[in-house]
Structure formats: structure tokens, C-alpha cells
Write a structure and sequence with these properties.
Blueprint lengths: L1 E5 L4 H12 L4 E6 L18 E5 L5 H8 L4 E4 L8 H4 L3 H20 L3 E4 L10 H23 L2
Parallel strand pairs: 1-2, 1-4, 2-3, 4-5
């Protein structure tokens, strides 16, 4: 199986890579912008032929579409690592939550990839693709209405 891990150089993503590569038949590509991820978490795989590292941002849809080609399963671990920063940079959660996830889903759609999991979904026994999309629509609506309340109380 060929896995694609967004945020794969972060703590959670790199631990998932460790689990994936325990099976000698698996291959994995990490896609990370190293904003908070660390090369040290994955450096022991750099010479492994089953491992590929791409420095890229999920907000760059064209690069993401090309990088994700040929994979079977996506683990999506990109998130805002700096909650305090989002108080000043008010669109940070929008970009790293909603837009990043949209880009991952769009890159998957274009490339015919049907399987995905993210941090929240790893603990949901009753996961469906429709639930995933609904969850992000609700999150987008919540962020939007919260922003409106801040602008016009």
C-alpha cells in the first residue's frame, strides 16, 4: 500500500509513519512544510527506498495534486500548531483547517484516491466520507459565524 501523510514530520504524523513502515510491503510519502514538523523525527528513514519526503505546503494545491498521485491512502495531520498566533493572524485556522482540508480532498478527488483519515477520525469507529465532509462544513460554518460575531457584535 502507498500512503501519503500530510504533516508527516510532526510528532503525530511521524509516529504514524513508524507504524506504516513496520510492514515491509508499505511505502510512504511525507508532505510537510516544516513549519512545526522536525526533520529529526523522520531522518532515520531518509535512506529507506520505501520512504519519500516532499517539502510542500497543503495550501499549494497544484504541488499537492502532483505529489499525491499514485497513492492509495491519505493520513491528514496538518493543523494550526500555534493557537496564540491565530488570535493575531485571524485567518490562520481557516487556512490550516478548512482550506488545507479542502485542498487535500480535491487532490484526492482529481487523483481517484478514496481513503483518508485524520487525527480526529482515527478515534471514530463509525467514520464515513459523508461524515468527514459534514464535519468540515460544520467547522467552516462555526469559524465563519464566530468571525462575524467578532466583526459585528
Amino acid at each position: 500500500m502507498k500512503y501519503f501523510v500530510t504533516g508527516g514530520a510532526g510528532f503525530i504524523g511521524s509516529n504514524m509513519v513508524d507504524r506504516i513502515l513496520k510492514d515491509r510491503s508499505n511505502e510512504v510519502t511525507i508532505y510537510d512544510n516544516f513549519c512545526s514538523g522536525r526533520r529529526a523525527y523522520v531522518k532515520h528513514y531518509l535512506k529507506d527506498k520505501r520512504f519519500r519526503l516532499i517539502k510542500g505546503d497543503v495550501l499549494d494545491l497544484e504541488l499537492l495534486k502532483n505529489a499525491i498521485k499514485g497513492h492509495n491512502f491519505v493520513f491528514h495531520f496538518v493543523a494550526n500548531p500555534d493557537i496564540v498566533k491565530s488570535m493575531v493572524e485571524t485567518d490562520l485556522d481557516l487556512k490550516l483547517g478548512i482550506i488545507a482540508t479542502y485542498n487535500v480532498l480535491e487532490a484526492m478527488r482529481v487523483n481517484g484516491i478514496k481513503m483518508i483519515a485524520d487525527v480526529g477520525l482515527l478515534f471514530d469507529k463509525h467514520w464515513t466520507y459523508k461524515k468527514y465532509l459534514l464535519r468540515y462544513r460544520i467547522r467552516a460554518l462555526t469559524i465563519f459565524t464566530t468571525s462575524l460575531k467578532k466583526i459585528a457584535p
